[in-house]
Design brief:
Largest sheet of chain A: 8 strands, mixed
Shape of chain A: globular
Strand content of chain A: 15-25%
Oligomer: homodimer
Number of helices of chain A: 8
Distance between the termini of chain A: 34 Å
């Protein structure tokens, strides 16, 4: 980050933290008035398998055994989305919530220590919302391997996540809170690491094309919208805005693990779309996250260079210390949600 | 079904179909007033793997390649549940919705042809609800194989489902609605078979113990309650009521694929819990479903023999023809939901 960018971030931070008359009150325990709650799949294709041997299946001890034929049609490449429609939306457009790698839409729900999550926060603020499980995650279902997916998936352990998500140093993981090593002032509720690890799902590193296609179709179907993405969703969100610059009205990326190469994607294409990138603590001392932050910075700089608006919330520079990669689950998750919402309010996204 | 049982079913059906003053109006397009929407995992255990080789992973083209260590802790055996809490519940206790085999909680959401599902129906009727994904399905996540699960999972095709779910005769499946062979008067929206097939998820036939344990823990945590289950959930629901006869206040099984052996489970244990079993059309001519219906009948007969209450809705005998195994997705799904709700109303489950 350059000195000027840092100063602009500070100035924005002070304005937001001081609050102002136009910012509505923080969503509390009030009622959520919904017109409907729907769940459905978007995108995907039909793949027909043949030549596989039959095998005997007995689905439960009382079931009639049958020779199951695995040959036939498979629906693959679809994503799952849950749509919450407000009776009287206060948000002028819906918010789409796109999770990160090895995770699902549960990212945005109740935090591992049992607090209200970002999805509920933005519903209480009055936005229509769409919470998705990307292709092959959660309710989206996954395509069998090796017949359709050619490789086996990755399974993340909390041992791995500990360092990657910056809860603490390498080998700092323990399921026993008394033995855990966390970074000073850590905001992630690390004592509840077991509950968090229950959210982990297998991921394929080969399905980006399917995922992007499905997200682009979702945008065509339900936008205009604001997209809030996390981590792996970086390239999916930035790409979606490039692919539908008339449909995506704001981009908010929480710790993007990938961005777009400004040599291949023009910042001018999306200069009318306000972008916001949010970073937690302990990024600069982490080799991988420093690189990812630089990638994001390089891309958003191309947007500002083209005359567009791209803000960065560097949380520690704004006085919020100790945030992990899982900002929306951290102990101060509501505080960060308020900053994000206030950014939207100032841009006129609420009635 | 004996002649007397048939007559009693008819009599009940006529009462319900005629309606009566005490039955509240059908939920329409009114607002759903929610206090909160939560999502979390219940049950599960920690399994530690060791001795597996490292492998190089690059999660996306821009990511720093890393040697991933698959050794470490895994959380397995948990189920996922989404909790919708009404501001002023009209239902005296919440409804838990438990899906069938190879499926997830999406079963109860929007139907494949885009209509409102049973979950929305019961939310509009004013019940608190809990919609789960059983262990290894959807957002519950699945345990890696062969290291934790010893066998590979089953993947269902729409070709298989066509006959098993009684949409039409064996080999009647086609993705092209013009080429499909359906049973006369079929209520399943077969033209939308692709959208339905997107809901299919892999299943393990070896995880019943985990699933039952997780469901029993869910009941301890969130009940007293009514449980509505489908298909594979039969034994899970009937077992849950036997295991917690003080917590489960009503059991509603839609086409249970399994029941309990009355030689091992006493009907007297649950005689104070009203049971309802619902069956669609074309059951008697299907070998497997005839057997499953007999199993359910044998178990519920043990409940009535002990002086308890166990009703059967044989939908074709009640004048509703053409229902498939996926009653909650059929074209007349709202009509069946109303019958089920009216059964609850008559038992005094609504304020």
């Amino acid at each position: 980050m350059t000195r000027n960018q840092l100063i602009s971030t500070f100035a924005l931070a002070l304005t937001l933290l001081n609050g102002c008359a136009s910012i509505p009150p923080t969503p509390g325990e009030g009622t959520i008035h919904l017109k409907s709650v729907r769940g459905f799949h978007v995108s995907g294709e039909r793949v027909r398998l043949s030549g596989l041997p039959l095998r005997e299946v007995r689905t439960n001890p009382q079931a009639v055994p049958r020779m199951a034929d695995p040959n036939g049609d498979y629906q693959v490449g679809q994503l799952y989305v849950q749509q919450f429609s407000q009776v009287s939306p206060k948000g002028k457009v819906p918010i789409l919530l796109w999770h990160g790698g090895g995770l699902t839409g549960v990212t945005w729900e109740t935090t591992p220590d049992g607090r209200s999550g970002w999805h509920e926060f933005f519903m209480r603020a009055g936005y229509d919302t769409y919470v998705s499980d990307a292709v092959e995650r959660g309710r989206a279902s996954w395509a069998r391997y090796p017949e359709i997916n050619k490789v086996e998936p990755e399974h993340r352990t909390p041992d791995q996540a500990w360092e990657i998500f910056r809860f603490g140093p390498k080998d700092g993981y323990s399921s026993d809170p008394a033995k855990q090593k966390v970074y000073p002032g850590q905001q992630f509720p690390a004592a509840h690491i077991d509950q968090f690890a229950k959210q982990f799902v297998a991921r394929w590193t080969t399905s980006d094309v399917w995922i992007q296609k499905a997200y682009n179709e979702l945008v065509q179907r339900v936008c205009p919208c604001i997209i809030i993405g996390h981590s792996q969703a970086g390239m999916f969100v930035f790409n979606a805005a490039q692919a539908a610059p008339d449909k995506v009205k704001a981009v908010i990326m929480i710790e993007p693990a990938s961005a777009l190469d400004p040599a291949k994607f023009s910042g001018a294409n999306v200069k009318h779309i306000p972008h916001l990138v949010v970073w937690g603590d302990n990024v600069a001392t982490d080799k991988a996250w420093s690189l990812y932050r630089n990638n994001a910075q390089r891309y958003t700089s191309a947007i500002t260079a083209a005359g567009g608006s791209a803000d960065t919330f560097d949380l520690p520079a704004m006085g919020l210390r100790g945030n992990s990669h899982m900002v929306m689950m951290d102990k101060n998750s509501d505080e960060v949600a308020r900053l994000v919402r206030n950014w939207l309010v100032k841009l006129g996204f609420e009635h």
